[in-house]
Amino acid sequence: MARARETRKKILDVAEEAVLVKGFDATSIDEIVASAEITKSGFFYHFRDKNALARALIERHIEVENQLFDDLFARARDLSDDPLQSVLIGLKLLAELIENMPDGHPGCIVATAAYQDRLFDSDVREVNRRAVLGWRRRFRTMFDAVAGCYPMNDPVDLDHLSDMVSSVIEGGIIMSRAVGEPQITAQQIMLLRSYIKLLFSPAVQ
Amino acid sequence: MARARETRKKILDVAEEAVLVKGFDATSIDEIVASAEITKSGFFYHFRDKNALARALIERHIEVENQLFDDLFARARDLSDDPLQSVLIGLKLLAELIENMPDGHPGCIVATAAYQDRLFDSDVREVNRRAVLGWRRRFRTMFDAVAGCYPMNDPVDLDHLSDMVSSVIEGGIIMSRAVGEPQITAQQIMLLRSYIKLLFSPAVQ
DNA sequence: GCGGTACTGTACTTGCGGTACGGTTCTGGA
DNA sequence: TCCAGAACCGTACCGCAAGTACAGTACCGC
After folding, report:
1. Which candidate, A194, A189, A58, A32, places its Cα nearest to that of A127?
2. Which of A101, B9, B126, B198 is deepest in the core (most CB within 10 A)?
3. How confident is the model at residue B159 (pLDDT cuts 50, 70, 90)?
4. How far, in Å, CA of A109 to CA of A120, rounded?
5. Cα angle vertex B78, ends B76, B82, to 5°?
6. Quick one: A1-47 is in which CATH superfamily?
């Protein structure tokens, strides 16, 4: 039981590392079992197929990411009582976090899933969908609080604005990968921060 | 000669359609040759391997996209002499264009390449890189013109701002795919437009 | 020490990318 | 009109990765 959990974790660990570096389909099961020091039979004992691995990988990844967001924006709220300021601080912390990752952001598994649609079954896509909608709700709550204190300098939909956080992060990751400039993602987040600042700041500063 | 070009075009056409729907690796060569009504031998006569197909696909896609951007922003410049206004008009036209596509944006091959890194050789990645850097230069020119007329309400790097256009588009495509809401990409572009408006507008409107 | 959990080992099937190579059809130019 | 080369076709094959099947085995709590 405890042993099974450990093995499963080891599989997910080595798989996650490989997938973030090379992509999902470029990571073979043979390779995973070699790194995890088990056999192919052992792998299929824990996962029905590669789809099940993908699903577990996404679910775990999303959990970790949510925890990270929770901590980060909780800290940001600690640093300021003002909703706008705490959002701005949170985004700044996020940008710094991503910037300080050695080889840039490890990449987001969600995007991989979105772009390799037919590679995964509907179950995987549904997990992915829920995660993104969860982010929308998360940021929507924050922007609602901000909009409660400050008038908007340009009337925009707050759901769309919430989506923009995820959108800019995902887009930034793609850009940094495409041109090989790891700092791009952090830069893009800072631009989003600039937008939010201009959108809600009563006086242009 | 002319026959060869036609066959090659047909291969690229059917491949592009399949790739945009299912992803690159989920599209088999057997499937492509069946749709193009040729044989496997015929396929490999035109392309050394699947990498060569990917490269040709990306190159063609980028050309078409550049042409589209050229036309769109040329039209935007026709509609207003003011650099800021023409950028805002261009983005609005772009958002409308994407919104009016039947099943949302067909998806961007560049992102696929960026996320399936190891699937492609360095040649393909280089083509991809040049395309993204080309977009940076394109939008940088436009923002330089805007910054020449209007002071910025928040001092940001214009290269980063130029990247944000591509970034928001790519991120928007991912988001719309992930949650199955095709209109997201257009919404995100409109938010970018809102940012640029606030960033350069002398008076908050 | 017994039964289930957690695997190992071996052998096999299927599908895809890619190779090899001889044969065939079409086409433009001397 | 004929012929060289370009543009394919047909078939057979290889290697790799996903996945199946199934018998055997080590460990672990009761």
Report:
1. A58
2. B198
3. very high
4. 13
5. 75
6. Homeodomain-like (1.10.10.60)
Per-window interface: B 7-36 vs A, CB < 8 A: 21-23, 25-26
Query: Of residues A176 and B117, which shows the higher confidence score?
Result: A176
**CATH code 1.10.357.10 region(s) in chain B:** 50-200
Contact A53, A47 (CB under 8 A): yes
Supply angle C-alpha B34, B108, B140, rounded to 5: 145
Q: Which of the 18-37 residues on chain A come under 7 Å of nucleic strand C at their beta carbon?
A: 37
Distance CA B1, CA B3 (A): 5
The answer to whether A41 CB is within 7 Å of strand C is yes
Instruction: Judge whether residue A4 contacts strand C, using its CB and a 7 Å cut-off.
Output: yes
Give the residue whose CA sits closest to D21 at C1': A41
Q: Work out the average pLDDT over B51-77.
A: 94
**CA-wise closest residue to B194 among A34, A16, A136, A157:** A157
Nearest C-alpha in B relative to A186: B160
The 10s digit of each residue's pLDDT in B163-189 is 999 999 999 998 998 899 999 999 999
Nucleotide nearest to B43 (CA to C1'): D8
Strand D reaches within 7 A of the B118 CB: no
Name which of A38, A17, A37 is nearest A26 in CA terms.
A17
Q: How big is chain A, counted in residues?
A: 205
Partners of residue B161 in chain A, C-beta under 8 Å = 191
> A40 to chain B nearest CA, in Å?
23
- Every domain of chain A with CATH number 1.10.10.60 lies at 1-47
Specify the CATH number of the domain B50-200: 1.10.357.10
Burial zone of A67 (CB within 10 Å; 0-12 exposed, 13-18 middle, 19+ buried): exposed
Please list every residue in chain B whose beta carbon sits closer than 8 Å to the beta carbon of residue A107.
115
